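Hi L.,

As promised, Succinate-semialdehyde dehydrogenase/glutarate-semialdehyde dehydrogenase:
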Amino acid sequence: MNGNTWMDEALCWINGERRTLFESMEVIDPSNGERIGNVPLGGAELAEEAVTAAWEAFPAWSSLLPRERACYLTRWAEKILQHKEELAPLLTREQGKPLAESTGELEVAASFVQWYAEEAKRVSGEVLPPYKPNQRITVIRQPVGVAALITPWNYPAAMVTRKAAPALAAGCTVVLKPAKQTPLIAIALFRLLMETGLPAGAANLVTGAASAIGEAWLGDPRVRKVSFTGSTEVGKKLMRQAADQVKRVSLELGGNAPAIVFGDADLERAAAAIADNKFENCGQMCNGINRIYAEETVAEELAERMVAKVKQMRVGPGIRPGIHIGPLIHDSARRNVHRLVSDAVEKGARLRTGGHPLTEGEWAGGSYYAPTVLTGVDESMDLTREEVFGPVAPILSFRTEEEVVDQANQTPYGLAAYLFTRDVARTHRVSEKLEFGMVGVNGTSLSVPQAPFGGIKESGVGREGGRYGLEEFLELKTITAMVD
């Protein structure tokens, strides 16, 4: 099956059936600005139909044995892996990332499904000590109900499964809206899910107008849980709307991740790890490094190593072999990146490499930006306070541990932080002082199926991954009985 076949079936899924609409919206390839497909332009009516299907399917789905739900998820994971080579070009064409990254993302997507297929069988309760004679106190976990899932464009495959798999494993039924920029891979993943024989209505997908669909779900009392990944601005709006009915929410929002490189660090290891993180997906990663703090004694050497690595990176259409960095998601994103770089240079930062849009030759028509390294950056520059979300590595210097921890924490965000050092005591001391939900030490890999992923402060609430991600879709119920 080729990529065109997947695009030809770009439809919504409601109650186990394909749905199309007269109105549609275009999907654009960010590597050249060309249309690659159309998907239904759904709104409040279609969103309500999806909830109705999920609501009606919930009693039967939640009553299945956990091992029965696990069987559907296991088959879904197998199908994703079976078709990953066909799906990777589709993901690359609508999102822009290189093929190798797309293939890797699909493998990660399958790993979340595999994990929760097993974790579904481990949901358990407790028997508590009695408070009175002949009293029995038990605590059980039950699925929340219908869960509304809203996924982002930067990891449009992995975020579908990181949300849908735990929800389905817990016994919830789901309605999902993928980002308007990247709906095709979500539709393809749902097609594979339907091929497992999943009961009708257990999982539903709607594409279209974000505001209309979101408002319909947030205003519907049958939706008891909302899980959203995206910008902090939108997340705050959803949180306010969810408050009207006290819906449960999970929000994975923006970040401003620092990476701290101490003078005793392995600089080659640090430079390689930071470069891999910073330029993955063209820098469009919520837990991507946004600020690099280097101790004064090693700042210049780290910068030189970073520049050397960046100059080896090839920028171009992700569909081509040998490409390391694809385009940004659209031209508006590129303009924002250039605004932040220009502001830093005007305020005294030194441009070491990159720092400009790429518009000629193979880059014509796409939203490419040269991978960039800046030194002499300070806290007065906009890119230290705003999430850059692009291929820009700003390097700041520091003198003391206390100083850099204080600087790193001076942000309303608190998703991820990274530090590099050979000092074991410093590892624990700094990790505990950093005000972030996740800390990577001497490495930058944070998103794995078995561990919680999420932030504090304005980076969100709740966690995805591990048993913690499953608990987001479960309610606790206490049963107290007097037994004569």
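The first strand starts at residue 12 and ends at 14.

Thanks again for sending the construct details.

K.
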